[in-house]
Structure formats: structure tokens, C-alpha cells
Amino acid sequence: MASQAAVGAPRAGLGRKLLGPQNRNLWFWVFVGPFLLGLLIFVYIPILWSIYLSFFDARNTVTPTTFVGFDNYKFMLTDPAFLSSLGTFAVFAVFIVPVTYAFGLALALAVNRTHWFQAFYRSAFFLPTACSYVVASLIWRMTIFNGVRSGLANTVLGWFGFDNVAWLSVTHPPWYWLVLVTLRLWLQVGFYMILFLAGLQRIPPILYEAAAIDGAKAGWQTFRYITFPQLRATSVAVLVLLLINAFQAFDEFYNTLSNFGSYPPYARPPLVYLYYIALGSQQDLGRGSAGAIILAVLIGLVTVLQARFLTGRRRSA
Amino acid sequence: MSATVSSPQADRAAAARASTKVPRDHRIRREPLDRIGVALRTAMLALGSLIFLIPFYLLIRNSLSVRREIAGRTFTLWPETLQWDNFSAIFANDTIPFARSLFNSVVVSIVQTTLTVALAAMAGYGLARIPFRFSGLLTGVVLATLMIPAAVTFVPTFVMVSSLGWVSSLQGLIIPGLFSALAVFLFRQQFTDFPKDLEEAGRIDGLGYFGVFWRVVLPNSGAFVAAVAAITFLGSWNAFLWPLVIGQDPSSWTVQVALSSYTTSQSPNYPQLFAAATIAILPVMVLFIGLQRFIRQGYESTGSTG
Fold it and tell me: Which fold has domain B95-303?
């Protein structure tokens, strides 16, 4: 088809050549150009600009003049607050990733198998994914875990004779983790359940029939030898998404823990830290940029390592 | 184009049809233990789904309560008299520009959804179907941004937007979020699988690239467009970090920022705060329940790219 058009078109003129056969090149740019231009202006140039800023003293300015070399990076990597924000992320991930994974899978298995009210159950678990973190934080902070007796959590504890717990303002023990993990679990697990349900639907029924003929017991055996291995691709996708999303946690931390514009010194995940550095009173865009770049590199490394690890296991299994 | 080669879509549809014919419960032997398993599963689902609905119940209860019933000495199951006034009082409350923020959210979400879908569908179609020398390279340029965690770019993007003078403006809220590489990627997949015969038919009828896209491809991809649009709308309505960063003046707050700032303020009026939150999630709930099937399918295609 391409050669036909090329023969038909006169070979004269650079303009003709740029337009391509049937003006294809022109049409390509009409379709793809606007998006690429936006990507250039709002993703690629900002990233390059940030890399530039990260080598300058750029407080309250985007056109700095004082070159500081790697000082911003040095500051970030030795700042105990930055390092502890990475620790906060690690703790959060250790809770939220396996818990959401397990609940998402369990719900999908249960919903997939049930004969009654399947659509209702699926909707009930899926509905919270439409709620914003801001609204969820409001409910968690002011009604469920509000620390007074009429809060739902303390009411339930009261039935068993326990004292009130000030969920969000004590650090020993760090009960705020319970608040943050249950909130994100409630809001996200339906999404992962949907991914697992889709994965379950893709398993060919014939595998189960063959297993039954071979004498495999329904339940644990079929789960262990058919369902779980068949869900491998879904599992990898779910774990990678969970980890990336945990790394980017901001909304629920900010909205459950900050008060009158100030944030407690504990439980600051990386983005909350970055937000206060780059847009707090200092507007330190140099350090903020350095922090953003360090985080981007870190998350890239973690993602690659995780994918390597998860797919590596497939080969040995 | 031979009859034996079937498209992935047809395969999937066939598989779906086949799986609905086979009973959901594949087990052939039934044992007494199974009955316990079924009972446990049913109990877990019933209890779990009730627990998952509790936050919605609390939200509605609170928005119809007086303060004492929300944060008093004991738990109140349901308000004594329903305080519908809370819903009108929040609009009259001077400490939070609620009406304005609601208006901003509506504008931002609708414009952002429309333009994101339009830009991504066109780019996806161009990359999938218009032969161009550097098509592969440019696809790589788009996909590379999928690797960059969106939230980490808020500092660089803020640098750009503030130098354009767009802080606290609607364009600052809307435009940086229009270029979703994920949406382009999904559309590109979708259009690569689109039956070529249909496009050829359109071309024979004299349609050019845009005509084929607008009259043939888009009308036949309705469900997919609906899925991407619904997911984009949800994301846009619920977005918080970027609107917080850019909305430095209360006149440019979205409803999420307004709610957040009222939540963390000195002494919020609890019932009004919850009435505001109820209003804020109402549009997305209606949309979500109405378009649940499309949203689910959209998420499924997102997940399989992970």
C-alpha cells in the first residue's frame, strides 16, 4: 500500500516529502502532536528543569543563580527527617502490601464462588474505591477513630471493657498505623479484588475438571496447585501496584494527622516530607527537586528489583 | 483475515461465554466439609460487606445529626430528628467557600475528563494506526512516562506551572493533568485490536483518517471510551495533592481541598462538615453505581498492563 502511494505522489519538493504519502505524516502529527507537546511541556521539560534546580540554591525562585553542586543531595541524604520518612514508608508498606494482597485475593475467591448476591457483594467491596481519601480520612478521623467514647472504635472496645484509645495522638504504641492501614485497605481492596476476579475468570475451567478427575480435593489442593499458580501474572501486577501506591501515599496521612496547618513530627511519608520542603514556608525548590529525583530513582529501583524478584521466582518454581 | 485467525477480543468474548455456561462451582465431589466451607464463606461475605458499608452509614448519619450526636458521650445509632438544615447551612458558612469549591470541582472534572479522553484517544489512534517512521520511538517516549511515579513529579510540575503564572488558577488545576500516558497506552491497545475491515469499509466510502476515527472507530468503541472517561472523572474529582499544591488561594480550591482545609481548621462545625462531605461524594457515587460495569472493565485492562 505504501509503495503504491509513493509511486502516485510526485517526487518533487521537500514539503511533499514531509507530508508523506496521503499526507500521512501530517495526519500523524494532527493525531499525536497535541498529546506529545503537552507531555513535553508538562512532564519532560519540568523534569529537566528540576534536575537543573537541584544543583542550585533555589529558595522561593525558579530561576536561581547560586550554583551549589551536590549540596542539596547531600542535605537530603543526611537529613534525619528525610531518612525517617523512608522508614515510615517501609513500615507502611510492610503492613499495607501483604494485608491488601491477602484480603483482595480472599474476597475475590469468596465472591467468585458464591451463588447468592454475588453482584451485591462485589459492589459493596468495590464501592469504596470511588470515595476520595479526603472524605475517608474525615470519616476515619472524626467518627471511627476520634478518640472519644462515642467514636465507633472506642465504642466497640468499650463493649469488651477496654479504656478509650487516643488513636491518632499517641506514638507508644503507634495506634495511628491502625487508622492509616484500615483506611487504605477499605478504600483500595475492592480495586485489587476486581483485578483478582478478572484473573480468576481467565483460568480455563478445564484445568479444574482435569484436576478433579486426577483426584485433587477441592479447596486447598486446587487452590495451591491450580488457582494460585494461574494467578501469577495478576499477583505480580497487584504487588507492584500496591508498592508504588504505598510509596505515593499522601492524602490520608495529611488529612488524618495534620492540624491547623501543622503536621506532627512522626508518621511523615516521603511525599508529605517533600511537600513541606518544597512548598512549606521555605519554598525550597532546590532541595525539593533533589528530593523528588532521589525518590524517583528509589522507586524505580524498588520496582525493578521487585519485578525481578517476582519473575525470578517463577523460573525457579 | 482468514476465518481461522480470531482477534483477542473475540477470544475473550468466547471465553466469557464459555465460562458462563460452565457452573461457577467446578467441584465435582461434594463433601460434608464443603458445607462448612460454604457457610464460612457466606458469613465472611455477609459480615464483610456490612462492615464495608459502615463508613457510608456514618457519613450519612453524621450529616443529619447535631454535634452532640456525633461527638457526644455515647454512640448514637441514628439522629433523633433528621437535621436536613445542615445541607443548606454549609453553603451559608463563611469559613469555607463551599459553593465556589464545588463549582471549581465540576468545571475541572468535566473539562479534564473531556480533554484527557480526546487527547489520549487521538494519540492512541495515531500511534496504533497511522504508519509513521518514528512511531515506535514516540510510543517509547510516551510509555517511558509510565515509569515515572506521578506523585513525585509534583515538584517539577509546580516549578513549570508557577513560572507560567498559573498558581491558583483553573488552567493550573486542569492543564498539567491532561496528558495521561496510561490512557494513551490503553487506547493504543484498544485500537490495535480494532477490526481493520470496518476501517477499510469507511475508507472505501471516502473517509480520511479523521473521518474513519470519528465516524467508525470512536462510535464502535463506546464502552471503552466510557470506561476511560469514568475512571478519569473519578480520579479528577477525588484528586487532592495537585489541587492542594496549586490552590494557594481559597477561590481556586476544589471540593477536596476545601473539605481538607475545613477538617483541619480550628473548630469545624461537625454536622456541616459531614453534610459537605456527603455532597462531595454524591456525584461520584451516582456515576460509579451507574457505570460500574465499564469502570470494572477499565480497571481490568489497567491491571493487566501492570
Answer: MetI-like fold (1.10.3720)
